[in-house]
Amino acid sequence: MMKPSNYHNKEHLIDEVLEAVKDIQIKFQAEDDEEKEWLLQNSPNPEVQELVEEMTVTMLHVLDAIGTLEPVNGITISKQFGFSKGTVSKITKRLVQKNIILPEYLPDNKKEVLFRVSERGQDIYRLHQAMHQQIDLGANRFLQRYTEDELQFIVHALRDTAQASWFHTEKDGPLLVSSEVIPYPDEVSHDNESTEAVTVNEEMNEIMGMLHTLNSRDLKKAKAVLEDVFFTKYED
């Protein structure tokens, strides 16, 4: 049995880990702006700079996917990179309008569209690739401070985190620490406002549970998708 002092020390360390995860999420959110600034500063010409200024993070990711896999259809982009089909459809339409990618229609299947990066889009694609090379170099330099054993532990912890859910369910047993529990619908008043509030809370819990299963790179994608789908207006 774990000694009380060891238990409290472990709980304290877990709290520190959770706080660190929050800090990392905030850092990655801030780096979206940092990446955009790097792209603007290193654009090869004013035309590319203007296009980059208008593009969202998700548009850049979809362009990167097309440049890597071309010729490629929307379904493959969705499966390979975790974007929804609706998001890919909206983004590719936007990229075609800006002549950043080109659609190709198969002679025997007019419904299936393949995408390639246009000559105009190649400049942005290469710029985006160069940015990720700089990020990889920076990440490599940062990780050099750790020993091989520490790096093996980091890899193990990150892979476990990517595959696990942090969302607590009844089958996991009772919580070891007290927490505020959202009441079930039959435990609250039955007026419309209360029922709606409970439904929203349950949906938020479900969404948070799904987000907890993602690694940091996928969290950035999720954030970008949410911004594009719900908070970005597209021209018809």
Automatic annotation (TrEMBL):
Where is the HTH marR-type domain positioned along the sequence?
Answer: 48-151
InterPro entries in the record = HTH_MarR-typ (IPR000835), Metal_resp_HTH_trans_reg (IPR052067), WH-like_DNA-bd_sf (IPR036388), WH_DNA-bd_sf (IPR036390)
**Do you know which SUPFAM superfamilies this protein is assigned to?**
Winged helix' DNA-binding domain (SSF46785)
One Pfam family from the UniProt entry? MarR
Q: Which GO terms describe its molecular function?
A: DNA binding; DNA-binding transcription factor activity
Q: Which keywords accompany this UniProt record?
A: DNA-binding, Transcription, Transcription regulation
Could you tell me the superkingdom of the organism this chain comes from? Bacteria
Q: What is this protein called?
A: MarR family transcriptional regulator
